[in-house]
Amino acid sequence: METPTPRGPYPTDVTDEGWAFAAPYLSLLDPDAPQRRHDPREVFDALLWIVRAGSPWRTLPNDLPPWAAVHQQTQRWIEAGCFAATVHDLWVLLHTPEGRVPDSTAMVFGGRTLRSSPESGHHAGYDGHKLTKGDEVHAAVDGIGPLA
To answer: So where are the chain's domains?
Structure first.
């Protein structure tokens, strides 16, 4: 594992409390494994930056781990079901005190159309209800907020 270089915090960095919750889900390898070159928390912080900024992988700031390493580890986490397990357990944690069962009983689906431009190309569709050409964005929400 590379020695971390000191960097200033980003607003997207995971809190100590958040890391204490997330770390067991993301620990696929022994921390001393020779193939691990970057601190998992730094990789997770880089992923949070990408998600919040909505930026391409290659625009990751230079003081975070390299984008390719973050992308590769993220793919491993997704394939291993780490994020799905985290979301499920968070749902259970938030709903059990309310006396609810851990399976959703009600859900709301919503969507919106993001207007497209000529640069959007052929993939943009047409929303006849809103009379708008663009891309559809959908969300699923249960009683306490987004599912994922």
So the answer is: 16-97, 105-146
The whole-model pTM stands at 0.63
**Distance from C-alpha of 117 to C-alpha of 115, rounded to nearest angstrom:** 7
Residue 73 to residues 9, 54, 81, 110, Cα–Cα distance (Å): 21, 18, 12, 31
SS3 for the chain, per residue?
CCCCCCCCCCCCCCCHHHHHHHHHHHCCCCCCCCCCCCCHHHHHHHHHHHHHHCCCHHHCCCCCCCHHHHHHHHHHHHHCCHHHHHHHHHHHHHHHHHCCCCCCCCCEEEEEEEECCHHHHHHCEEECCCCEEEEEEEEEEECCEECC
pLDDT band, very low/low/confident/very high, at 54 (cuts 50, 70, 90): confident
Q: What pLDDT is recorded for position 87? A: 83
| Residue 14: per-residue pLDDT | 92
Say which residues have a Cβ less than 8 Å from residue 9's Cβ, sequence separation at least 6. Answer: none
Which tens digit of pLDDT belongs to each residue from 9-41?
898 899 999 999 999 998 866 666 555 788 889
